[in-house]
């Protein structure tokens, strides 16, 4: 039994929140074919995260691992785990991160990859993002090229987010791949994921009619 497993009791609420987020997101078709990965913070130094290849719509606690933010990652974690851990290290307010392969995010990422950003402006639903009080602000959703070297990608993402001007949406897109979305807890992260999907639907329709 690894050192990390001694945290399983403290991790129970985080595990429950990941299981629930997986159930909801899978029901929407955002985690097809065991794709995506989901995580939640346990404490300042630990998170729980889904293991590779598990059905995210029917997770059990065995499908999750507790990892320390500064630990060498266990081998059965998703290759995308470094992108989660880098976000938690960069922002202590983040309590949950949902990485989904929702088709609209993969598509919007490809369409806006050259620009490196998708701008949301004028949509009432922007207020579903924590801290947003008006449809009138311009929210930036950074877009990154997809990459299989996720350690390098995580460094690029964090450097970019730290330097982004203006207001950032609580998420980013990977072109042809999906989205990373976060919140203070699993519920808020799921609300952000749901809002992003609806906003991408609106944005896609808008881009095709104007
Ligand atoms: Zn992915």
TrEMBL record:
Its EC number is 4.2.1.109. Its cofactor is Zn(2+). Pathway: Amino-acid biosynthesis; L-methionine biosynthesis via salvage pathway; L-methionine from S-methyl-5-thio-alpha-D-ribose 1-phosphate: step 2/6. It comes from the Bacteria. Residues 16-204 form the Class II aldolase/adducin N-terminal domain. SMART domains: Aldolase_II. One of its GO terms (molecular function) is methylthioribulose 1-phosphate dehydratase activity. This is Methylthioribulose-1-phosphate dehydratase. It comes from Vogesella aquatica. The lineage of its organism: Bacteria, Pseudomonadati, Pseudomonadota, Betaproteobacteria, Neisseriales.
């Amino acid at each position: 039994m690894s050192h990390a497993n001694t945290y399983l009791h403290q991790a129970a609420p985080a595990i429950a929140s990941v299981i629930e987020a997986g159930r909801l997101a899978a029901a929407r078709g955002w985690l097809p074919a065991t794709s995506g990965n989901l995580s939640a913070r346990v404490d300042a130094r630990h998170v729980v995260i889904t293991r590779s290849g598990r059905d995210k719509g029917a997770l059990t606690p065995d499908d999750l691992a507790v990892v320390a933010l500064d630990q060498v990652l266990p081998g059965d974690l998703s290759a995308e785990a470094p992108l989660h851990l880098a976000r938690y290290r960069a922002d202590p307010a983040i309590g949950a991160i949902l990485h989904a392969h929702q088709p609209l995010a993969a598509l919007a990422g490809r369409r806006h990859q050259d620009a490196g950003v998708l701008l949301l402006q004028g949509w009432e639903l922007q207020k579903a993002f924590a801290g947003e009080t008006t449809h009138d602000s311009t929210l930036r959703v950074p877009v990154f090229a997809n990459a299989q070297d996720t350690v390098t990608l995580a460094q690029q993402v964090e450097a970019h987010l730290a330097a982004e001007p203006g207001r950032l949406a609580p998420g980013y897109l990977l072109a042809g791949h999906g989205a990373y979305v976060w919140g203070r807890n699993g519920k808020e992260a799921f609300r952000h994921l749901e809002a992003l999907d609806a906003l991408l639907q609106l944005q896609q329709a808008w881009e095709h009619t104007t």
